[in-house]
Amino acid sequence: MKALIFEQFGGPEVLRYAEIPDPGLALGHIIVRTKAVGLNFADVYRRRGNYHLAGKPPFILGYEGAGVVEQVSPDVTHIQVGDRIAFCDVPFANSELVAVPVDRAIPVPSDITFEQAAGLLLQGMTAHYLVNDSYAVQAGDDVVVHAAAGGVGQLLIQIAKSKGARVIGLTSSEAKQAAALQAGSDVVFGYDTEWTQEVIRFTEEKQGANVVYDSVGSTLMESFAAVRTKGTVVFYGMAGGDPPHVDPRMLMDSSKTLTGGDLWNHVTTLANRIERAEALFQALREGIIQMGGLTSFPLKDGAEAHRLIESRQSTGKILLIP
C-alpha cells in the first residue's frame, strides 16, 4: 500500500509518500481502505518529535479517518466487508489501508460522507464532551471560546449556540474573526486587544463569562480574569505554550473553578463513541453543525498540508485524501 511516512523527526520536508507492506489482519480487527483522513496538530507534534512514538521508523502519522471495510477477522461477526466505518483514535491512518480494532470502529450512515466523518469525529467529540461534561452549557450562559476559528473552536461555537448560549470568540486575525462570526459567534475579539476587559464589558452585569474554553494554555490567567465570580475555566490544550501554575488560594478567594479536559477520559467504550458520533451526525443533519471550510490535499501532498496547518493561517478542518 501507499502511505505518508517519515524516518526522522523534523519539518514537513521529512514526510514522503512511499510503498510499504499492507497491515496484517489480527483477531478483533478489520482492515479499512481509507477514503479520507483527518489532519490534526497532534500529527505535527509527533512529526517534530514532541510526542513519544512507539516502534521504529518508518513512522506513519494520523489517528482519524473513514473508509470501507476490506477484510474482517474471523472472530468478528457484526461488521461485514463493504461496511462504511470511521475511527478517531487508531494509529497509522495516513495510509491506504488501516487495521482498526473493532472496539473503535464507528458505523458511518449512508447520508454522511467519508469527508464529513473524517473531518468531524475527533474535533466534534472534543467539542461535545467540553460543552456537556466539562461544563454543561445552559441557555443564557456567556461562553468564551479561544482559537474560535479552529476546528474545535467552530464546533464549540455552534454547539454552544444550539444550547442557547451567547458566544464570545477569540482569534488572531481578521480572516479568523470572519470565520468565527460565520460559525455563529455573537462577537469576536482579537488577541491583540484588551480582550479580558472586552469580555467583562460585553457580559455587563455578570462581570465576566460563565465559562472560558482555553486551548491556548499560556493564556490561562487571562481566562480566569475573563470569567465571573463562581465561573469556570476549562483547560484542554496548549497551542500557545505551557500554562502558568495556578494558586489554589485564587480559586478559593474567587470561587472560580479550573477543570482539565482530555477526550480519551470521556470516550472509553465503543458504546460511548457511537453515542457521541450519532449525536454529531444528527446535529449535522439538522444544520446545528455546519462543516464549511474543509480543505483537502491528496495524501501524497501531505507535506503541503502540514505546512498549511503549521502556518496557523488555515480555518476549519484539513483532510488528506488517499
Biggest sheet record: 7 strands, mixed
Order of helices and strands: EEEHEEEEEHEHEHEHEHEHEHEHE
Round the Cα radius of gyration to an integer and report it. 20 Å
The helix-and-strand class reads alpha/beta
Number of helices: 9
Assembly context of the chains: single chain
Strand content: 25-35%
Globally, the shape reads: globular
The strand count comes to: 16
Alpha carbon gap, first and last residue: 10 Å
Mean pLDDT: 94
Walk me through the structure.
The chain is an alpha/beta fold. 31% of the residues lie in helices and 25% in strands. Strands 3, 5, 6, 7, 8, 15 and 16 form a seven-stranded mixed sheet that branches. The model has no long low-confidence stretch (mean pLDDT 94).
Give a nutshell description of this structure.
The protein has helices at residues 41-48, 114-134, 151-162, 174-183, 195-202, 220-226, 248-254, 270-285, 302-311, and strands at residues 2-6, 16-19, 29-39, 59-60, 65-72, 84-87, 97-101, 106-107, 142-145, 166-171, 187-190, 209-214, 227-235, 257-260, 295-298, 318-321.
What brief labels describe this structure?
322 residues, 9 helices, alpha/beta, seven-stranded mixed sheet, 16 strands
What's the SSE blueprint?
Elements: E1 2-6, E2 16-19, E3 29-39, H1 41-48, E4 59-60, E5 65-72, E6 84-87, E7 97-101, E8 106-107, H2 114-134, E9 142-145, H3 151-162, E10 166-171, H4 174-183, E11 187-190, H5 195-202, E12 209-214, H6 220-226, E13 227-235, H7 248-254, E14 257-260, H8 270-285, E15 295-298, H9 302-311, E16 318-321
Parallel strand pairs: 9-10, 9-12, 10-11, 12-13, 13-14, 15-16
Antiparallel strand pairs: 1-2, 1-4, 3-5, 3-7, 3-16, 5-6, 6-8
